[in-house]
Amino acid sequence: MTHEVPLPPRTGLPTSEERLRAALLYAQSDAAAPPTAHPAAPHRAMITGLAALALRCFSSAPSLLDLERIDVLVPDLGEPTGPGARAPLPAACSYTSAHLVRTRILPEPELITGLPVAPVPRALADAVAQLADGDEVRRLLVEAVRGGHCEPHPVVRELTRARLLGLPHVADAVDSLLAEGRALTEGRLYEMVFGHGLPDPCWNVELRVPGGPHLGAVDAYWPDQAVAVEIDARTPRAGAEAAWDAYTHKREALEQLGITVVHVTPEKLRDSLAQQAAVVRTALMAADEQDPAEYVAVLPR
């Protein structure tokens, strides 16, 4: 729902901050709240969509001055009836256009320059919902990960919740998002090994029982200690349950052969690299006290 509110004329155009504050003030006003809303219900609002990404200095998002409207995320307390009412806005603005995005799952806002702003994954989903250009969507998603704003998993979760993954241009962009996230995570794994003095493993290899079946791929493997590291980069997409079953089966098969599997996630490698290095080092040291593992062939992936 978009409302454009004319205000008394003033000299010059409104600043970006004035437009943002005006849109928030409208969204938080009684006039913007649905008439069915309970009077005691909290009416929180936060900037979302392209405006939220612009506030975070996304180079692939339009500047705040170039945006024709400001998306504001508000609680979905019921649909309004009749013509949209108009709330008074700061006289500093000559006009503003506020687009209310209603949701039943309201995230915790983050403060940027004193303004409540939706988290990056939610802001991305609200922005993507308005975009039909696949290249534009891809640039936004890739920058979110490459710029360190968030991990791919929360973005895919929000896009799934918004039922956007069925759109071909969004699905293609998500593939690029996951590839970017995978590359960054593998870089952190290399940093963990070399930066914390771990022995050099075999990287990105397939394990196989000689003369038997393939056991699957691992991201790092120490043959002498029979220790493997695998990055869990599963995302909440279609087929996620089957992927989890396959992962569990592979891990059980490796452990039955005496191979220790250390499971790491992109979040753990990002937030606690030293701790993850300690876990791997402990597994390598413990190998000397365990029964020798079955021999497996190590093949390049």
From TrEMBL:
It comes from the Bacteria. This is DUF559 domain-containing protein.
